[in-house]
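Students often ask why we bother predicting the structure of a whole assembly rather than each chain alone. The short answer is interfaces. A chain on its own may look different once its partners are present, and contacts between molecules only exist in the joint model. In this exercise we take two input lines together and write out one structure for the complete complex. Read the inputs first and try to guess which parts will touch.
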Amino acid sequence: MEAAAGGGCGSGPPLLLSEGEQQCYSELFARCAGAAAGGPGSGPPEAARAAPGAATAAAGPVADLFRASQLPAETLHQITELCGAKRVGYFGPTQFYVALKLIAAAQSGLPVRIESIQCELPLPRFMMSKTDGEIRFGNPAELHGTKMQIPYLITEKNTFKRMDDEDKQQETQSPTMSPLASPPSSPPHYQRVPLSHGYSKLRSSTEQMHPAPYDARQPLVQPEGASTGGPGAKPPRHQTSLIRSFSVEREPQDNNSNYPDEPWRITEEQREYYVNQFRSLQPDPSSFISGSVAKNFFTKSKLSIPELSYIWELSDADCDGALTLPEFCAAFHLIVARKNGYPLPEGLPPTLQPEYLQAAFPKPKWECALFDSYSESMPANQQPRDLNRMEKLSIKDMADFPVPIQDVTGDDKQALKNTVDEVLPKDMSEDPATPKDSNSLKARPRSRSYSSTSIEEAMKRGEDPPTPPPRPQKTHSRASSLDLNKVFQPSVPATKSGLLPPPPALPPRPCPSQPEQASEAELHPQLNRAPSQAAESSPTKKDLPYSQPPSKPIRRKFRPENQATENQEPSTTVGGPASVAAAKPHPTVQKQSSKQKKAIQTAIRKNKEANAVLARLNSELQQQLKEVHQERIALENQLEQLRPVTVL
Amino acid sequence: MAVCVAVIAKENYPLYIRSVPTENELKFHYMVHTSLDVVDEKISAMGKALVDQRELYLGLLYPTEDYKVYGYVTNSRVKFVMVVDSSNTALRDNEIRSMFRKLHSSYTDVMCNPFYNPGDCIQSRAFDSMVTSMMIQVC
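Now the answer. The structure tokens for the assembled complex follow.
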């Protein structure tokens, strides 16, 4: 094998391998080739086996291996191209060896070129864990048809993994894998490979969180209907538990199947994963996810908002602002595909139509009628009404997924369909009723989700509010009052009602209050001093005046609005209460000695002065407030002027 | 049938405006803008009490010699303005109404998308295609 590999480099320069390299490479090749027993390299397996220098390495294990090298997908893709696997359509020994050499080159930091293989390079390093395995149902059968070799890689990888891990379970991969037709761009596929590999690694390590959580979730390509015979075990359950633990990042899963739109086909593993994610968001599988919940979920995929918006448009078939399970799966799948580099389709692919999704994963346990309705919809009929029922079925279906009968053209299904056609009209008659309910049900969450989203968005995006924030003056009852505290309070309810906090307006507000309070604090001691001085002269008579002036500042402090309103009036009114307070003690003072009278009068004078000072302060603060209001109005005007310009 | 379709937000800035003969776009933009006054006039004429009963379709806003401008207001004060060619006499009021209804339902679909922030420009492809279907009929 080594010799053949050494000399067999068909298209590129001769590949010279050192001893260690030869050994390592041949071992890897053997593993890749051997694991995929019956794996489709090209044509009949026997022929492949018989090829000198060993069989072709199965795409799956090879892809796994390459991913284990931990090179970026782009590099791996380049390597695949260079080594010739894509050209010849399979990983023959020469291609494999060249690829390994290129991997080593890339890992050493050399550019991926054919010339690189001429250098002496260290052995390529692979992080592949040997305990991976299983769950992937490698379904060789699915590779029939127009499958690309590379995507085949992915599916093969599944099988490989399984094989690798559990050698005991030598799945009998049907050797009927035929070389696939040319496919969509390989990079996306290739990228998928890394994903599934990562996933398998995860699995092997029994639920440890894969560093790339999304990777972990890679459900490898699962043959949808492919009856792979062997692996009946459904690792997906295990997978899904793993998957659940991962954060939401999606990666593309390739899909198998006989349909030309491979990237848009959801494999079983993918489906399981999607369903479990759905369940994590919404425990009832037959219900739907509201728009805001889905938005938060899909935003984690780090796609741009316009793309997510477009994906939503595609997947929300009934445009109700909520995602049912098939819609959710379709959206998830589109996001996965997009993350892997697939361009978004112009329209929802037929394999992602909700009805199709419902029917594509039938559950044997279904009642006939339901099953028939599903199968009936399989030809991708537009039957949105069946969604509700389908969701339920799909959920059940998802719950325990035996080997999927992905053969879409299953005769049994069609037979059932034919026999149960008469059931359909009955079902359809039920449909109008259920969709109405569902629509009404959905309408409510739609409005809710929309409103919640809009409120959240409006709150977040102050620059683009649904309604302009109401001016505080509108809610402020006493427009002329210098009531700064009250001015603050209306701004809070105004915020709530207008859905918009006016950020520029709020900050200046606290400032004026501080001087006021500070000035009040100043005045308070002054007023206290004044009464205290008066108290010295006439302790008894001053009680009244003391009580009155001190109470005024206190009142002003604790209930500034009341005091403020009083203060707004000219200082005479401020002086008024003082004078009134002062007047009260007068009769008593007259009874007293003149000394006391004088003392009281002094106190009164001082109080008047204090009042005058306070009044001046009030007018100043009022002025300040007016200025702040004007500023605010100017800013709001500016904002409104700016807004139409930016929108246009 | 329309030569220009515009969706105006409540604050009177356009969320979406598109005209078919692209060389005269500015003229259509201006026509839509001036028609907003007429729309506001019609809305305010109803009075606040009639907001609920106000019909959404406003009818012909004003005719010019080349074009006719039709208006439609939703309950959330989002306005749809459509400019049609005057030479297209076959276009009846009912057809205009149905076109507005389609616009309205497409608009609600756009709104349902949680990734659409109210107040953003409408970039939905479905909405675009619907408007194109309405406009292409003319040409």
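Check your guess against this: The mean pLDDT of chain B is 82.
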